[in-house]
Amino acid sequence: MSNPNPDEHSYDRHRLRQWLAGDAYAAGVSRRVMLRLLAAAGATAGLSAGSAEAAGVPGIVKPLPEEFFTVRGTNAETNWPALRGTGYHTPVDRFFVRNHTTTPVLDADSWSLRLWGSGLRGGDTVLGLDDLKSLPAVTRSAYVECAGNARDLYASQQGEPVSGTPWTLGAIGQASWRGVPLSAVLRRAGLTREAVDVMPRGLDAEYVSGGVSVGRVRRPMPVAKALDDVLLAYEMNGAPLPPDHGHPVRVLVPSWVGIASIKWAGDIEVSAHPLYSPWNTDVYRLFGPSYPPGGSAPLTHQSLKSAFELPWNATLPANEPHHLTGRSWSGTGGIRSVEISTDNGTTWHHAHLHDTPHPARWTRWSHTWTPTTPGPTTLRARATDTTGETQPDRSVHNTQGYLFDAVVAHPVTVV
Ligand SMILES: Nc1nc2c(c(=O)[nH]1)N[C@H]1C(S)=C(S)[C@@H](COP(=O)(O)O)O[C@H]1N2
Ligand SMILES: [Mo]
């Protein structure tokens, strides 16, 4: 798989080596706590159950009607049929929510963002929302997708056990985000040439796993990505960010794993040393027999996927044309083509594509099918991206079920 950004590639290699050598310093988590955590959770099971999740309370502010969402612990998965006809951007009322704890309801007037750390000159910088809004704004379309999206397919389609929230395909949403480039804020705060990592941290509650707090949600990214296309977003689809999606300000890291897009940003550490958090060491890396003993490099880009805007086990009348619709996306390239099979993968037809390719955005597609034979069958959508990668028949397993990319067999019955 090609990596479009050489700086990200060297980030992967160098940080992994440093982490494995114990060279990165632990911000907020002592070695002792990490060891307890690993003992409690099992070396690769990682962080799985928060206290709210264990209690089965979603802790989400917006309504979660059954036709739009499937609630999974502290999270809400978007039902794909609810996206049919919604256009390029996902309406907030059906945008998935992934919370480690619960949505904090923050006051925009008293909110501030602190930038600090050894990668800045001249001390801390504190910015209020008005300060951010006084900087030149940009608007950008991008999806946010959980790295564990489609995790359940490892088990249901491939018969392989994985740990974590059993998402089907609905842990993705795409919005139009307005905000300030993180690069502008970093430069204003006195970014130095020595800076290597940038770590935003949320204002939501500390995350407790296995009875041990690992602190507030945070994950470092290399300075090259931070200076590239990352936004500090304060608007979503033309309105102030809603509480569940990070009000008043979230980080938006296009095409990367959703965990990078820290909600309710409260501070950003800018460091001249490699940074560490549980979210780039114990979770959001690939573990398992196909990967190095210490796991893969920390995850960056999302994987290639496709989904139909149709209920699972949908019933479709025979001898009538059905306008099948769906979307495909890839974090490493735009979508170049999508093929559809309505006969369990025997024959394939090119779908009609409705959007231009972009690695941070999905492409809508459609295909008209007139079934003639009653009975059960499976529909498949197989996308190819602009790097030439095509969705495989089987996804390479990892214990935490990240980055599923195989063609999904979507069951339907013709009547
Ligand atoms: N502060 C904070 N930021 C966070 C999270 C969180 O729990 N707390 N969850 C992350 C994960 S794992 C994902 S997939 C995305 C989900 O964004 P959404 O809830 O707006 O869809 O937010 C990320 N940012
Ligand atoms: Mo996620």
TrEMBL record:
Residue ranges with Low complexity bias: 368-378
SUPFAM superfamilies xref list: E set domains, Oxidoreductase molybdopterin-binding domain
A GO biological process held by the record: sulfur compound metabolic process
InterPro entries in alphabetical order: Ig_E-set (IPR014756), MoCF_OxRdtse_dimer (IPR005066), Mopterin_OxRdtase_euk (IPR008335), OxRdtase_Mopterin-bd_dom (IPR000572), OxRdtase_Mopterin-bd_sf (IPR036374), TAT_signal (IPR006311)
Domain Oxidoreductase molybdopterin-binding: 100-279
Start and end residues of each stretch annotated as Disordered: 367-396
Name of protein: Sulfite oxidase
UniProt organism field: Streptomyces smaragdinus
